Amino acid sequence: MTDRPAPPHSAPARVAVFARLWEPGLGDLVQRNIFLALIRRAYPEAVITHVLPRATAARFGEFLAGHSLAADVLCCPDYGDDDPAGWAHFQQQAGRFDLCVVDPDSHGLGGTHAAAYGIPHRIGFALGHTGPDGLTTTIRIGRPLFGAPDLFDFATGLAQALGVPPPGHVDTVPPFPYAPEPLPDLIAPTVVLHPGGAPHWNRRWPLARYIELAERLGETAGSIAWVGSADEVSELQRAGKHVFAGVGLNRLATLLAHADLLIGSDSAPAHIAAALGTPTIVLYGPTFTEFMWARVYPRHEGINRRYPCQQIRNLQRGAGPAVMPCEHSCRYAYAGPDGPYPKCLTDITVDEVHRAARRRIPLRMPHD
């Protein structure tokens, strides 16, 4: 619900989305298309600018140039950067907007800043990191059934504030924008495996199990493709034949749109596949996003031990086992591809992943 009316009926010409995110991944930016799509639906003629930390904009330039629903990007100072000159320069550019929408995960850039910059209309969340201060429209999220509010709750609240129909579970995530590229001949049904790895080894189901899974799926799948980062090329080439590691997002999206199933970790390729409508099976380690995935990705299935310590979040990078309250004495962060891996992942068996995959792979048609 909102405790103040939405912005005036006169449509804004320039909309800023304040999103000073702390170390986001590519999957986090894919999900930001949810908010951007709602704003576009409310104001189809407006120029929508995504305000992101400078380091984030540099790291994800390819995504922002071709796969974001924002028209352009305005860089704000990075998280932890309090240089007055940088903020003064940003303020000069931020004052041109008619409306500001504050991302609930924006740190240190919210309604009070937008008000100081002279932005007349400011929408945000009472539960956001910057809170309700300075907002002209405050969105209040009711207590969810499980845990804390997630992207579906925030999207529903933002839709109400903007005066557009709320998204349903089927259409919360807009289709991932991409330009198709040629692919090698892949026999259907195609299964894509994304073991994950650098730098998030603690999200990876051990590679040996993916290899065993691929061997067992060979009786059902026509083709098995492997995706990963450029750092994982050599080991993926040892794992399988069709390797798409370190490829551009257009090529990756083309593959995922062509695929019949993706199996992998809670990571960007899985988010992209789900946004393309491709069925996904995600193996959850020490992350807490399974319920949100189930709400916004209708063709998703999660495999999760649901140990209480899997809900741990926001630990300092490389903090070590002494500060990780894990009931199974798992280490944080993990050193590399040889582990050690968290128990919540090593307890997932090849048998159960194989059974889940067989339920989702379409029947293989005989060839003439």
Automatic annotation (TrEMBL):
<keyword id="KW-0328">Glycosyltransferase</keyword>
<protein>
    <submittedName>
        <fullName>Glycosyl transferase, family 9</fullName>
    </submittedName>
</protein>
<dbReference type="GO" id="GO:0005829">
    <property type="term" value="C:cytosol"/>
</dbReference>
<keyword id="KW-0808">Transferase</keyword>
<dbReference type="GO" id="GO:0008713">
    <property type="term" value="F:ADP-heptose-lipopolysaccharide heptosyltransferase activity"/>
</dbReference>
<dbReference type="InterPro" id="IPR051199">
    <property type="entry name" value="LPS_LOS_Heptosyltrfase"/>
</dbReference>
<dbReference type="InterPro" id="IPR002201">
    <property type="entry name" value="Glyco_trans_9"/>
</dbReference>
<dbReference type="Pfam" id="PF01075">
    <property type="entry name" value="Glyco_transf_9"/>
</dbReference>
<dbReference type="GO" id="GO:0009244">
    <property type="term" value="P:lipopolysaccharide core region biosynthetic process"/>
</dbReference>
